[in-house]
Amino acid sequence: MSTGALLVRLLIERVLSIKHVIMEKQNAELYMENCQMIRENERLRKAAEQLNQENQALLAELKQKQRILEAIMHQKPDAQLKIGSSSSTGNKKCNKNHSQKHN
Predict the structure, then answer these.
(1) CA distance 38 to 40
(2) pLDDT, tens digit (0-9, with 9 covering 90-100), for 41-88
């Protein structure tokens, strides 16, 4: 093999070696980014799970309160009217007492 051909071959091997090193470095960087994304995904998944549990608890509490309210309303269907009229009566008494105190 001639000296020129040998130099070309060595040069090609050197270039390929450098490309291999560059690719290995890029691969390591991508691997680290991937690990970071996996950790962030896990953190977000746990936060979403926590929020979901809180939402489920709040929904259960709301449904329980709704069932209680419906049970009360079925037992006393006119309860809403009584509440409305008694509060307006109470307001009249309050207004009457208030106006007497200021006179």
Answers:
(1) 5
(2) 999 999 999 999 999 999 999 999 999 999 999 887 665 556 555 555
